[in-house]
Amino acid sequence: MIQIPRGTQDILPKDTYKWQFIEDRLHEIAQNYNYKEIRTPVFESTELFVRGVGGSTDIVNKEMYTFMDKGDRSMTLKPEGTAPVVRSYIENKMQHDVNQPVKVYYLAPMFRYERRQKGRYRQFVQFGIEAIGVEDPLIDVEVISMLMHIYQSFGLKNLKLYINSIGDQDSRAAYNQALVDHFRPSIDEFCSDCQTRIDTNPMRILDCKKDRDHALVQNAPRIYDYLNEESKIYFEKVTENLDALGISYEIDYNLVRGLDYYTHTAFELMSDAEGFGAITTLCGGGRYNGLLELLDGPQETGIGFALSIERLLLALEAEGIEIPEPEGIDLYICTLDAAAEATAGQLLHKLRAEGISCDMDYKHRKLKAQMKDADRKDAAFTIVLGESELKTGEVELKHMQSGETKKVSMDDLKQLSTLIEENGS
Ligand code: ATP
Ligand code: MG
User: Fold this and answer.
1) Which ligand approaches the C-alpha of residue 62 most closely?
2) CATH class label, 331-422
3) Are 201 and 193 contacting, i.e. CB atoms less than 8 angstroms apart?
4) Ligand 1 within 6 A of 208 CB?
5) Which of 63-77, 168-182, 228-242, 310-324 has the lowest mean pLDDT?
């Protein structure tokens, strides 16, 4: 038997309403913040991610689904959304769009070859936003406030927002040197990845999952002490404006982004709900002032975040929040014989065109079983069609909740659909 690939999942019909509910909410909130959807391909040139995500990252080193196409080009299923958006921005010269800054969002599957774990899939759906073309603490605050708005709109309470500033490129040069000086003498005690990172990307040592409890990580130099005046002022404006919005946060000096193109604001949202499991990061984001240039684009700056629906669902589950089940159908037609079945099919055909959601039995079950089926489908109304209804052309429309019935002519579609629409749940 052929099985589903490891680390992927089928979202079954009984569960899709949860996804649709979340997706609708995300589209709606993005709309409120005036972000427009952008759709980029599922695969891109591998080169885009090698350059745009960075050769020293886990994503590029270990997690990409890369393949050669029949034209011998190396392609990669997208592992993240920012590089494709930036590629599209550059290619479509969006710096010249009349609407500035360019505010976009995406909602799309991402692919990473990862070890399977709770909250970690090989195909997962990310929602992310990017605001490109402005560098201002207020837009950073907008991005963070949207993120909080999303999670709070579902009623989630156990949320912890961590933020940090990693300064501008000047601030970081001095900081990287301080980290090298700090870690170099004892680098043997660190994992093999960190032993490489000290040369390629010392900041990432602070971010290492294996070495996070090492004393030298705990008492490492703080980026804050290396921020220049400009970067400090930028960070203060971000925190002041978060305060003004009543958004609570904690500053985490070890929250870093290891790549050169990241600057200033970095943030992460965690769940501290009990029973969430080992992985508690819901969302990560930050400012990337060097990414566009790195991809041969204009000197524009951007900021964004990405979250996955899989982890949002885990957070909801951990806090016992249920997504409302969808309403049932408007009408179920029960049938007593083959002639009635054919007529029911015709009636359904007409009612559906009127926007009524309706169904019937196709399995020739007994009336009692059909009624059960109507109940299972949560039908607001039922009609029983038999010989006498076919003869008179009149049916009894029964409102299931109240038990009230009304005689209606089958030909009077207007009356039928009006009655259903007025009384339906
Ligand atoms: P992690 O440290 O958990 O591996 P990451 O730093 O790789 O996360 P990002 O690349 O910042 O994650 O992606 C943003 C968000 O996407 C994460 O905060 C998380 O919610 C989600 N995410 C990342 N990888 C996965 C995955 N394999 N399965 C489900 N969700 C994921
Ligand atoms: Mg990861």
Assistant:
1) 2
2) alpha beta
3) no
4) no
5) 168-182
